[in-house]
Amino acid sequence: MVEAAIVSTAGAVGLAAYAVRGRSSQLLAPSIWHGDRKRPSLALTFDDGPSESTPALLEVLAKHGVTATFFMCGRNVRRCSEIARDVVAAGHEIGNHTESHAPFYFKSAEFIYREAALAQESIFQITRVNPKLFRAPYGVRWVGLRQAQARLDLTGVMWTAIAHDWKWPGPRVARMLLKRAKNGAILCLHDGRAIQRTPDIRATIEAVEFAVPILKERGFTFETVSQLCGL
């Protein structure tokens, strides 16, 4: 009886963990985590921006002719409004990454909706773009997110692979990108650090600068998430 209870508890914990953080989970909110696996295309995505460090990343992307998707936080958009507009002007796609980057663990449905709705409003007011994509902070889905996405007409986006560019050096991040790049992959990096001012994103920039030319030589093209997934 005790062993059965332990197994049952472990199974329930595992299911809950998958529902909350599993990249392919649809249990708490619908989301996509890869695109067409028949085409040699990739989507670079950048979370937590915009930040005072974003312009340097925009220069690298422009240099290599790469279009990406930026998941922005409302507070950062208001603080770095001109940079947010520069991202749009450069032809990149904008997604919603909540107002304050607070994790959704144990938060109410109203809190989750408000975080998404406030960011949606700020992004539209500053950039005149009404995002259609949403990425939860830390990839954490929770009860109430499904309803929030539906109310705001947002499609959830996870990732095929996440670069630990907030803690890994640039060469290690680049190796990860080269290793995990497959047809239809959505690759998650960061041009900010939550709502921190002037974050150090040198590892991200170094990794993108190194990996993108190699990936192009391998035959990959770069698209926005919407393009990659036919949205």
List the helices and strands and how they pair.
Elements: H1 2-21, E1 31-32, E2 41-49, H2 54-63, E3 69-72, H3 74-79, H4 81-89, E4 93-96, H5 109-127, E5 133-134, H6 145-152, E6 155-157, E7 161-162, H7 170-180, E8 186-190, H8 202-217, E9 221-222, H9 225-229
Parallel strand pairs: 1-6, 2-3, 2-8, 2-9, 3-4, 5-6, 7-8
Helix pairs in contact: 2-8, 5-6, 7-8
Core attributes:
single chain, 231 residues, alpha/beta, TIM Barrel, 6-stranded parallel β-sheet, 9 helices, 9 strands, globular, disordered N terminus
Describe this structure in words.
With 231 residues, the protein is an alpha/beta fold. It has one domain (2-229): Glycoside hydrolase/deacetylase (TIM Barrel, Alpha-Beta Barrel). The protein has helices spanning 2-21, 54-63, 74-79, 81-89, 109-127, 145-152, 170-180, 202-217, 225-229; strands at residues 31-32, 41-49, 69-72, 93-96, 133-134, 155-157, 161-162, 186-190, 221-222. Strands 2, 3, 4, 7, 8 and 9 form a six-stranded parallel beta sheet that branches. A three-stranded parallel beta sheet has the order 1-6-5. Helix 5 runs parallel beside helix 6. The longest helix is centred in the N-terminal third of the chain and has 20 residues, at 2-21. The termini are far apart.
Shape: globular
Domain count: the total is 1
The assigned structural class equals alpha/beta
Q: What is the CA-atom radius of gyration, in angstroms?
A: 18 Å
What is the annotated CATH architecture?
A: Alpha-Beta Barrel
Residues in helices, as a percent range: 40-55%
Which stretches of 5+ consecutive residues score pLDDT under 50?
1-8
CATH class wording = Alpha Beta
Query: How much beta, percentage-wise?
Result: 5-15%
Report the mean per-residue pLDDT as an integer.
94
CATH topology: TIM Barrel
CA-to-CA gap between the ends? 50 Å
Major sheet characteristics: 6 strands, parallel
What is the tally of helical segments? Answer: 9
What string, H for helix and E for strand, traces the elements in order?
Answer: HEEHEHHEHEHEEHEHEH
Q: Please give the number of β-strands.
A: 9
